[in-house]
Write a structure and sequence with these properties.
This is BRWD1 protein. The chain folds into two domains: 5-120, Methylamine Dehydrogenase, Chain H, CATH 2.130.10; 135-214, no CATH class. It is built from three helices and 19 strands. It has helices spanning 178-181, 219-223, 230-254; strands at 5-10, 16-21, 26-30, 36-40, 47-52, 59-64, 68-73, 78-84, 86-87, 91-92, 95-100, 106-111, 116-120, 135-136, 143-145, 151-153, 168-169, 199-203, 209-213. Mean pLDDT is 79; it is low at 216-231 and 259-267.
Length: 267
């Protein structure tokens, strides 16, 4: 295999450079002399994440497609902490990105299975107010294009940005209780009855009929006299104001003097 560098990062004070190579080694270099100082061994697949600690120049984080997350002391060439992202029943999950918090006490990672992994010091109680699995019910719905080549949601035939706020569901599409639905922007002040999504049966592209959240308000529902979404009303109001401003600007432009001066000439 011809060695190739897949990622590079400087440490906090720029004294060291760490490179990830496609042979799964991390190499630590002196940034001034170019001297190779350490080979960091531990990864078993490609590494595309190298993250520098915000204030400790000794610390570097690495993560890769092998599901491993390492905290290294690059001055000594040793590993300080190790985590393996094993997912029950599915093997390991490749880690795609990691970032330290500004105070260096926490770091967060995202993986190939849609998980957000949060590590750090302190109590995990603040995170217990949200469920382990959080998806929007529209996350994996198909999109189509209309005759003008604009993107529409296939089920509601609406532009995605004009749709009401989605519902929070688990990985199987089951809606979460109303206290979680209020975490969605646009649903903070909704009554309880508006936070309970309607479930229905829809046919997938394979012809399979599945139960799915269908509690989305459409233009047809508005015509039937059903209560519209708060967010829809705000969007329509903003669009109306923008149209009025555009019309006023065009009108003032058409009535402006054509002689190049700021005011019309006096007769």
């Amino acid at each position: 295999m011809k060695p190739k560098v897949t990622m590079i990062a400087w440490n906090q004070n720029d004294n060291y450079v760490v490179t990830a190579v496609n042979n799964h080694l991390l190499k630590v270099w002196n940034s001034c002399t170019g001297q190779l100082l350490h080979d960091l061994v531990g990864h078993a697949d490609e590494v595309f994440v190298l993250e520098t600690h915000p204030f400790d120049s000794r610390i570097m984080l690495s993560a890769g497609h092998d599901g491993n997350i390492f905290i290294w002391d690059i001055t000594k060439g040793t590993k300080t902490k190790h985590y393996f992202n094993m997912i029950e029943g599915q093997g390991h999950g490749a880690v795609f990105d990691c970032r330290f918090s500004p105070d260096g006490q926490h770091f967060a990672c995202t993986d190939s299975h849609g998980h957000l992994l949060i590590f750090g010091f302190g109590c995990s109680r603040p995170y217990e107010k949200i469920p382990d699995q959080m998806f929007f019910h529209t996350d994996y719905r198909p999109l189509i294009r209309d005759s003008n080549n604009y993107v529409l949601d296939e089920q509601t035939q609406q532009a995605p940005h004009l749709m009401p706020p989605p519902f929070l569901v688990d990985v199987d599409g089951n809606p979460h209780p109303t206290k979680y639905q209020r975490l969605v922007p646009g649903r903070e002040n909704c009554a309880d009855e508006h936070l309970i999504p309607q479930l229905g049966y829809v046919a997938t592209s394979d012809g399979e009929v599945v139960e799915q959240v269908i509690g989305q308000q459409t233009i047809d529902q508005d015509e039937q006299g059903l209560e519209p979404s708060i967010l829809d009303g705000m969007i329509r109001q903003l669009q109306l104001e923008q149209d009025q401003r555009t019309g006023a600007d065009q009108e003032s432009a058409s009535s402006a003097p054509q002689n190049g001066e700021g005011t019309p000439r006096r007769g």
